[in-house]
Amino acid sequence: MTDLTHLDATGAAHMVDVSAKTDTDRQAIASGRIAMSGDAAAAIAAGTMKKGDVLAVARVAGIMAAKKTSDLIPLCHPLPITKVSIDLVPDATGVTATATVRTRGQTGVEMEALTAVSVALLTIYDMGKAVDKAMTIGSIRLLEKTGGKSGDWRRDGESGPA
Amino acid sequence: MTDLTHLDATGAAHMVDVSAKTDTDRQAIASGRIAMSGDAAAAIAAGTMKKGDVLAVARVAGIMAAKKTSDLIPLCHPLPITKVSIDLVPDATGVTATATVRTRGQTGVEMEALTAVSVALLTIYDMGKAVDKAMTIGSIRLLEKTGGKSGDWRRDGESGPA
Amino acid sequence: MTDLTHLDATGAAHMVDVSAKTDTDRQAIASGRIAMSGDAAAAIAAGTMKKGDVLAVARVAGIMAAKKTSDLIPLCHPLPITKVSIDLVPDATGVTATATVRTRGQTGVEMEALTAVSVALLTIYDMGKAVDKAMTIGSIRLLEKTGGKSGDWRRDGESGPA
Amino acid sequence: MTDLTHLDATGAAHMVDVSAKTDTDRQAIASGRIAMSGDAAAAIAAGTMKKGDVLAVARVAGIMAAKKTSDLIPLCHPLPITKVSIDLVPDATGVTATATVRTRGQTGVEMEALTAVSVALLTIYDMGKAVDKAMTIGSIRLLEKTGGKSGDWRRDGESGPA
Amino acid sequence: MTDLTHLDATGAAHMVDVSAKTDTDRQAIASGRIAMSGDAAAAIAAGTMKKGDVLAVARVAGIMAAKKTSDLIPLCHPLPITKVSIDLVPDATGVTATATVRTRGQTGVEMEALTAVSVALLTIYDMGKAVDKAMTIGSIRLLEKTGGKSGDWRRDGESGPA
Amino acid sequence: MTDLTHLDATGAAHMVDVSAKTDTDRQAIASGRIAMSGDAAAAIAAGTMKKGDVLAVARVAGIMAAKKTSDLIPLCHPLPITKVSIDLVPDATGVTATATVRTRGQTGVEMEALTAVSVALLTIYDMGKAVDKAMTIGSIRLLEKTGGKSGDWRRDGESGPA
């Protein structure tokens, strides 16, 4: 059976030693989606159309969250992020978010990409909640990671909802 | 058509004025789930059985994230949280998280509960990602909120995945 | 001669005791300006015209900074901010920022308004610095404060640049 | 016409990719000034003379703010700062602040130096505001930057106030 | 046998519900000491004598840490602190720190006072470590707390070192 | 007489310039102890035995605090930590904490190890304070540091309490 690397032999949590790892260029892409009522989606669309800040606020929140990842996820290593971009695509029933994060470091940036997506979607929830409290965030997952000793990884096909 | 209260008439984002609202007791409950391979679920279960810290780490991460909500979500008001608890239930294909947050304040704690759930699940992803990178986080949603002028709200039935 | 309330009798810094003060509604308005070359101002205008995020990013940065004020200014009291709005007006030679902050608390929100203006303008510098490194930020000042025992205060006329 | 590098082709904000840049030694120097009444300047001077902490508090605030720059400025890259010093010179009508910041990294430290100056001056405002609410912060600007591919830059002569 | 209130019946950590508690004025005083070589103590004294910032830096660090307590201690409630002062007394073999913290809130400020003392002393260690790496921090303890339903508490006599 | 490197010639605090230092692998180990009543120690032991989160919460707090060290200690350089582990050993009269921190950087991680120990012990205080407010934290000290130009350092024998 597989073990969790974040626990030592006694089960105690620790931040895994990556001292011996080489600095390499690493990238991770993650995505997620917030599903909402037609009314909420229309409010988002209206906010966007009249040059409203709605997607910009979510994008900025996601970018800033990527930089806070090691402050949020207890066993995550701090990393000097070299790029973050967040793509937000609204449609008639929600918004899909995709985050791309890069670093040149000793560990990967999967958590940074997943955190950026999560916080961008939570921010959309916050802005839309007066219209629709039942919005649901899901399908938060890694799409691919490249760089690092463990090699590249890409999700097979499109995974279904959680 | 409904409008987004977080944008002013010109579409500019602002933190909504809640100065005139009364301090009342408020509570929000949110939940979410991380779906994973049997191997990853078994690793979580093993980590839990031998008194490992795996669920404790996720729980602490979620509680601390609730306190950082207004630092993460740009237009969210800071609130003096008076209670946070996070329930994590592992099973053969994943872990379900439920967060309960309370305050006595001028706005609700929906975002705090949703943020706590999201970060607890991201933390489980972080600890399990060496075993299974394809884990998916979803069904993050509000279950109920009570208190405040807009009254109580409860989700109708169990909503499907996002 | 007047004394600094933030130093005790021996000159040691302390966070002034406001325990005995009453919670009252308080508001502060501050403004500032970044002066830039015509090229930089044109780039800002172009970014704004094509629905670019440029002013939204600065606005979000200012709002979030208002919430971090007591974390930045050592002797500043933490406060539950109830409203922040930031008005950014670009013109041919720069951008003028005005921030309005409210709370119901034991001390005023002058520092929050001034910090919001400062960080919004620094963010514009950051976005424009590839075009013009010589941009200058100035005229950061309080316009008015209302509420609290010391009463209301309004700046006389328009003060010149610092 | 020039473009803003912090916006992509659609106008969306992103953290620019610096992955391909080389780590080099970089330095930035910025300055600014707070102008105040004679009474406030005298209070600062008195606080300084009797070994009071007044300038030390502002200096520490500026140094700590330099370390928080990427947390405050949304699209700013996190950097391992290797030196910060802040020079504060009080006179009869105010205080002039100059910050010097160094790093060995992939981007420059202009924003760190400007942020350090801004927060040091805001801290002086905070300590003096009981004496003089009309104090004005200005002339915040980059004096020079060295290192990095874009080469060295120095401000021509002394620029006037913003 | 006594139980830990921070664990629920299953042993899971939670932030205890204080919603039903009344806001009352509360104060806590804590102290601690860093013991050092004569050389290090002399360096501190010299830094202090020539108006150096050494004690001011530690004092500011302690005050700012008090404001971060709920961000550092996982199950600690966030509180609107209304006063912090830190007294630092250097002598021939070290420095003694005493912190006084006040709030008007639903829980006490013991943790804020203890955290302020700890971080002030760690800051002195940081500044003196080039002279003496063997410095030891100890005797960190609560001296008294007042306010709140559980009533006042004062330490009996002087407790010995930890 | 020795001088404090963190003060310049005029006594002003600054973050020491480490730009010229080489990145090397560095490690620091620190320890400390919280002494408590038999009742409190029994409550900790009971919380641990029934798989309670008590030590896990303290461990996570310490690990996260190590990552916040440069945000807490004003003149401390930010560092990309590559490993943190915290060992907590409860006995009949208290808990002993030992932290090991590694980095590959330009300065050492002594402060990170000492901060991790301090915050882990403060967290135990927080969880046990309903049982015993008189608990005392002490013996916080560096055990060894390795790496860096100044060479390795190990504490001679066991130092007594502070």
TrEMBL record, chains A, B, C, D, E, F:
Question: What is the E.C. number?
Answer: 4.6.1.17
Domain of life of the organism encoding this protein: Bacteria
Tell me the keywords, alphabetical order: Lyase, Molybdenum cofactor biosynthesis
Q: Which organism is it from?
A: Sphingobium subterraneum
- A GO BP annotation: Mo-molybdopterin cofactor biosynthetic process
Q: Does the keyword Lyase apply?
A: yes
Domain Molybdopterin cofactor biosynthesis C (MoaC): start-end pairs: 15-148
Q: What class of enzyme is it?
A: lyase
Q: In which pathway does it act?
A: Cofactor biosynthesis; molybdopterin biosynthesis
InterPro entries, sorted: MoaC (IPR023045), MoaC_bact/euk (IPR047594), MoaC_sf (IPR036522), MoCo_biosynth_MoaA/MoaC (IPR050105), Mopterin_CF_biosynth-C_dom (IPR002820)
Q: How does it assemble?
A: Homohexamer; trimer of dimers.
Q: Which reaction does it catalyse?
A: (8S)-3',8-cyclo-7,8-dihydroguanosine 5'-triphosphate = cyclic pyranopterin phosphate + diphosphate
The name on file for this protein is: Cyclic pyranopterin monophosphate synthase
Question: Which residues take part in binding substrate?
Answer: L75, C76, H77, M111, E112
